[in-house]
Amino acid sequence: MTWLSSWCLMLALLFVQTSGQETVVDIAIDNDNFATLEDALTTAGLVGNLQGEGPFTVFAPTNDAFQAAFSGLGTSLNDLMSAGNLTGILQFHVVPSRVFSANITSGLQLKTLEGRNLTFGVAGGVVTVTGGRGTSATVTSANISASNGVIHVINAVLLPPPPETTDEGNTNEGEENIGGEGDNQGGTEQEMPQQTVVEIIVSETSLGRLVASLNATGLNEALESGTGNFTVFAPNDEALEGIESVEVAVLQKHVVPGRVDLTNGATFATLLNGTNLTVSVSGDETQVSVGEASATIVKTMNASNGVVHVINAVLNDSGVKAHCSILVAIFAAMWLMMA
Questions:
Q1: Burial level of 17, CB count in 10 A (0-12/13-18/19+)?
Q2: Which of 8, 149, 256, 337 is in Cβ range 3.0-4.6 Å of 268 for a Cys bridge?
Q3: Which CATH fold would you assign to the domain 197-321?
């Protein structure tokens, strides 16, 4: 047994010493989850650049992240390349320095190879990255070390901000058409939501009780002043009937850092440390759950800094367990009285 343990330790040390010898591109090529990223880098001619000395920090979208972006934009990899946008988008995911998650703090801004900044948020140990055009992503796997940098896996594609307008009113470098045919920048800018998640919650008539709890706990200020995006699962007045005020820890279970896609089986860390929210999709119905507590999404509203999903129940697992404990105690007492 001692010999086997020594052999395993030696293999582990050997792995640690050699795992950082691949470049950031080599790691992407060796991982099937980055197949679309590999195709994009090859198409854009950036493979050689990212195999250089660096260092680079790559925020690497998964295959699913790219597919969601293509679907949302109504475009494809080849269309982006033809429009001259692909190289800039990929460069917007690369920071020309080695940045580990321990070095990332809320409000931090890092300049990318594309020339514009990424903005970071940290809440409950979860790192979010915000780009332009209302895009943001959550870091799902951090600190994958390479010989020339580090990779952080993200769950969405980040788009650069719209190009600056010249004195003549024209945009620079023809980058205005990132989406599909007919999707010009002017139209995109006009359609972007102007209200924050808090402003939407305040203006939604079915969320009056939630507004009172957000104000009482001060969470409204955190959602309003935070640099990152938020996905808020907002219990409606019917769900909060009879509840005067909701504790901040319970409210935090209803907020996921970043703007996330609700796919069946997806799990996201909430603002309450150690608490995850799980998504279940069946036909046209989407449910979310925290532990044993679940709710159905009845309405969705996009915001300038995230998205608000109105739900028909409170996601308070501890409350569910407490009610169950009370019922068990009642039944136990009844059984003793009858015995």
A1: exposed
A2: 256
A3: FAS1 domain (2.30.180)
